[in-house]
Each structure stands twice: as structure tokens, then as C-alpha cells.
Task: inverse folding
């Protein structure tokens, strides 16, 4: 499969294979508050749902920036999601967001700056698969995989270092808030390699490598197999929690 804007959404996606291990909240001084898990998730839902009817966020005397975090396991990968925000007159203002997939990539967004930091070993694996495609292109072989031009540009100008740890500006097109849950303000595109996917986010300036995950389910007498990037599955898991499509128990929560 080559460069595509659409993806296959399996019917069983409504129950996402993820485990919510822990949620926590810290105030401006870094102290961890003793709030129930449901209270913390409801607070995050209010922060990330400005498009729906939203009651004023009540913080019970808390002032200044607040950091909320959660740790999950999504299809065997450990994920940390951290959001820092401030509430002004009952309305949320997102200040910083971190999505860290252990052994894959760490995404840090602050304002309109998005920093992408790939894990070294995973980046080497991804670039090996990219080099295989480039070698076939150079040999004139026909290939179903079309590498994104932004990926080629970065490799030509800076090589591996241009993808290891870099920062791009996001949210310039104004298609939506620039945070992880909406692909940093635009539609996400994916290019599928052997075991890795190449994602384009943030108006096509953010080149992000992600493991390729497959899922199969029975539909009558037919077995349907869907392939998607791990980061899209992480996004779906978080959306299900924060947009009310699933309760913590529906994503197979464990621990506290």
C-alpha cells in the first residue's frame, strides 16, 4: 500500500485493545492531588471537548497550570500521555502535551511547536526499510510503495539526524486545535512499509515513524484483516476515553 489519506477501520474498533494502568493529576507546585480516576478523566474530557456542550470546569480552588497524565498499554506498547493546561474563567487553555510510546517515539507539543524524538533503535529499523524502497526506485523497479516527498527531502538535506530529533510548526492551516487527538490540526496520512509506517502529520511537515499493527476479525464467513499504524491505535484509545465513547472499564483497565 502506498501513500493514502484513508484507512480501514475495523468493526471491532469500538472496544480497543488497551489497558489503562494509571491516571494522575498535579498542581502548579508539582504536588500530586488525590482525585478519583473518574474525576480526572472527566476533567480531561472537558479540556479536550471544546466542540461539545461543556460546563464550566470547576477546579475546587486550584489555580495556575495543572498537569494530568495517564499510562496505558496499547497492543503491547507502553504509552504515556501527559497534558498541561490552565483554566481561565472556566475555559481550558492547553499549554503542553506529551505522547511517549516507549521504544518508538516521543511527541512533545508546546504552543505551535511539535518536537519529534524517535527511539534510536526503532529509527534505524525504519530507515532500513526506507532504504530498501529507495534502492528499488533507483533500480527502476515497479513498487506499490510511494515514499512521502517530505521524508525524501529530510533525508536528502540532513540524513538520519533530520529525523532523529527535530521540531516543526503545527496548526497553521487552522483546521482545528493543534494537538495529538486531531493529528496536530489536520488529516493524517500514512505510507506502509514492511513492519513500519511513515506518518505525515502537522500539515505534512511532521514525519513520524510508527510500527505497523494488524487486526483481524470475522465477518460472516470472511476474515477481514486491517492494518494501521500503532499511533493511530493510541489515538483511538485516547479518544475513546476522553470523548466518552468508552469508559475506563471498556478499554480493559488494570491497576490504579
Result:
Amino acid at each position: 500500500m502506498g501513500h493514502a489519506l484513508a484507512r480501514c477501520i475495523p468493526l471491532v474498533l469500538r472496544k480497543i485493545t488497551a489497558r489503562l494502568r494509571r491516571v494522575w493529576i498535579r498542581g502548579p507546585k508539582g504536588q500530586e492531588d488525590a482525585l478519583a480516576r473518574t474525576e480526572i478523566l472527566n476533567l480531561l474530557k472537558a479540556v479536550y471537548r471544546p466542540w461539545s456542550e461543556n460546563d464550566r470546569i470547576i477546579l475546587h480552588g486550584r489555580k495556575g497550570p495543572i498537569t494530568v497524565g495517564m499510562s496505558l498499554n496499547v497492543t503491547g506498547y507502553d504509552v504515556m500521555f501527559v497534558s498541561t493546561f490552565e483554566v481561565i474563567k472556566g475555559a481550558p487553555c492547553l499549554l503542553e502535551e506529551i505522547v511517549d510510546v516507549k521504544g518508538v517515539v516521543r511527541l512533545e507539543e508546546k504552543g505551535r511547536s511539535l518536537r519529534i524524538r524517535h527511539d534510536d533503535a526503532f529509527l534505524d529499523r525504519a530507515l532500513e526499510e526506507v532504504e530498501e524502497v529507495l534502492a528499488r526506485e533507483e533500480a527502476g523497479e515497479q513498487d506499490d510503495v510511494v515514499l512521502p516527498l517530505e521524508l525524501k527531502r529530510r533525508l536528502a538535506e540532513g540524513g538520519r539526524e533530520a529525523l532523529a530529533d527535530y521540531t516543526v510548526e503545527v496548526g497553521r492551516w487552522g483546521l482545528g486545535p493543534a494537538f495529538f487527538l486531531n493529528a496536530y490540526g489536520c488529516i493524517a496520512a500514512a505510507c506502509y512499509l514492511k513492519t513500519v509506517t511513515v506518518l505525515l502529520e502537522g500539515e505534512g511537515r511532521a514525519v513520524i515513524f510508527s510500527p505497523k499493527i494488524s487486526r483481524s476479525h470475522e465477518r460472516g464467513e470472511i476474515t477481514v484483516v486491517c492494518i494501521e499504524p500503532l499511533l493511530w491505535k493510541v489515538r483511538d484509545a485516547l479518544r475513546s476515553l476522553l470523548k466518552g465513547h468508552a469508559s475506563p472499564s471498556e478499554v480493559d483497565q488494570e491497576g490504579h
